[in-house]
Write a structure and sequence with these properties.
single chain, mainly beta, 6 strands, globular
Length: 110
C-alpha cells in the first residue's frame, strides 16, 4: 500500500512512448514508437535474472516505475531514458486513490 510518496523521489525524467503500426507493403506491418508525454517518476530496480537456453544466455531486468496518475498509461507502452527502453508489463493504482501509478517494466537488452 502506498500512503505517501516523497515528491522529490519522482525525479527521473522519462519519455512515455506508444506504438503505431503501418503497413510495410508486403502484408506485414512496421512499428513506429511515438513520444506521447514526458513524465517524472521513481525508477527502482526490482530483479535481474539470467536463464540459459538454446545455447544462449537470456537476461531479464525488471524495474518498478512509480509516477503521478495518468489515464493514458497502459501495458504495451514503454518508457525511454536516453538509450534505455523499459517495456510496460503491468499498470496499477497501488492504493486505489487515483494519485499514483505503479508500473512493472522489463528493460530491453539487459
Amino acid at each position: 500500500m502506498v500512503s505517501f510518496i516523497e515528491p522529490g523521489s519522482l525525479r527521473t525524467e522519462l519519455a512515455l512512448e506508444d506504438v503505431t503500426l503501418s503497413e510495410d507493403g508486403a502484408g506485414g506491418h512496421v512499428e513506429h514508437w511515438v513520444e506521447v508525454a514526458t513524465v517524472f517518476a521513481r525508477l527502482e530496480p526490482m530483479r535481474a535474472d539470467a536463464r540459459f537456453g538454446a545455447d544462449q544466455s537470456l537476461e531479464s531486468v525488471t524495474h518498478r516505475v512509480t509516477l503521478r496518475f495518468r489515464d493514458l498509461v497502459k501495458s504495451g507502452m514503454r518508457f525511454r531514458l536516453g538509450a534505455r527502453i523499459f517495456d510496460i508489463v503491468t499498470v496499477h493504482d497501488p492504493d486505489e486513490t487515483g494519485r499514483y501509478l505503479s508500473c512493472r517494466t522489463r528493460e530491453q537488452g539487459r
